[in-house]
Design brief:
Elements lengths: L1 E5 L3 H13 L3 E5 L2 H10 L4 E5 L7 H10 L6 E5 L4 H9 L4 E4 L4 H15 L7 E3 L2 E4 L4 E4 L2 E3 L3 H12 L4 E3 H8 L10 H14 L7 E4 L3 E4 L4
Parallel strand pairs: 1-2, 1-3, 3-4, 4-5
Antiparallel strand pairs: 6-7, 7-8, 8-9, 10-12, 11-12
Helix pairs in contact: 2-3, 6-8
Bound molecules: calcium ion.
């Protein structure tokens, strides 16, 4: 799950972003309204967390502008001003939820989860490819009859593969969806994680599912 955080105060931004990353979300950060609007409109996110008071362009303007451009990504507004008026303006401008600063981080996480669930109602609640089953809501993975334990990052990686079966996923695509925009693709971190994941899902199976496409990336497929 990929989240755009638009927040200009470095301390707050780093606090939120670290907390979300610890929950295995990929987080991109924009530190002003103009950059935030550009990223929200040009990249694909599952959620935007948008501060209202921002340099360049305020959060409400950013929100109106991306909604006019038919960007339907769920938006959670943040503001230090807990005034009713801001909340009304925010919801009228197309926000899906609103949280007043200072907030409890667990409450932010709960709202993030709720918004991500809402956004997923159109898709299937679980994913199946051959005998591999992934249930994002329960964080459960099964291959044939065996349950497989994955770390949060391995899970995020597998979820990205099973949402895109038989498609070649480049390291850049994987980095952007499972890590974040600033991830250094020159390291071999992705290869290491894919190897761990492969050990867990393919080791005891006759048909291998996670294949390397040499020089390009990886592919979840039963056809080798
Ligand atoms: Ca601010």
């Amino acid at each position: 799950m990929r989240i755009l955080l638009v927040e200009d105060e470095p301390k707050v931004a780093s606090f939120i972003s670290r907390g979300l990353k610890a929950e295995s979300y990929a987080v991109d950060l924009a530190s002003d309204g103009v950059q935030g609007e550009h990223l929200a409109a040009s990249e694909r996110y599952d959620l935007v967390i948008l501060d209202i008071v921002l340099p360049g362009k305020d959060g409400l303007e950013v929100l109106r502008s991306i909604r006019e451009r038919h960007v339907a990504t769920p938006v959670l507004l943040l503001s230090a001003r807990g005034r009713v008026q801001d909340r009304i303006h925010g919801l009228d401008a197309g926000a899906d939820d609103y949280l007043a600063k200072p907030f409890n981080f667990d409450e932010l996480l709960a709202r993030v989860r709720a918004l991500l669930r809402r956004g997923k109602t159109e898709g299937p609640p679980t994913f199946t490819y051959k005998d591999l089953h992934v249930d994002p809501a329960r964080h459960a993975v099964r291959r044939g009859k065996s349950d497989i334990e994955l770390t949060p990052r391995e899970f995020a990686l597998l979820e990205y593969f099973i949402r895109n079966p038989e498609r070649v996923l480049t390291r850049t695509m994987i980095a952007e969806h499972v890590w974040d925009y600033h991830f250094d693709t020159s390291t071999n971190v992705i290869d290491v994680y894919v190897k761990h994941l492969r050990d867990k899902i393919d080791r005891d199976a006759k048909v291998k599912l996670l294949h390397t496409v040499r020089g390009v990336g990886y592919r979840l497929t039963a056809k080798s």
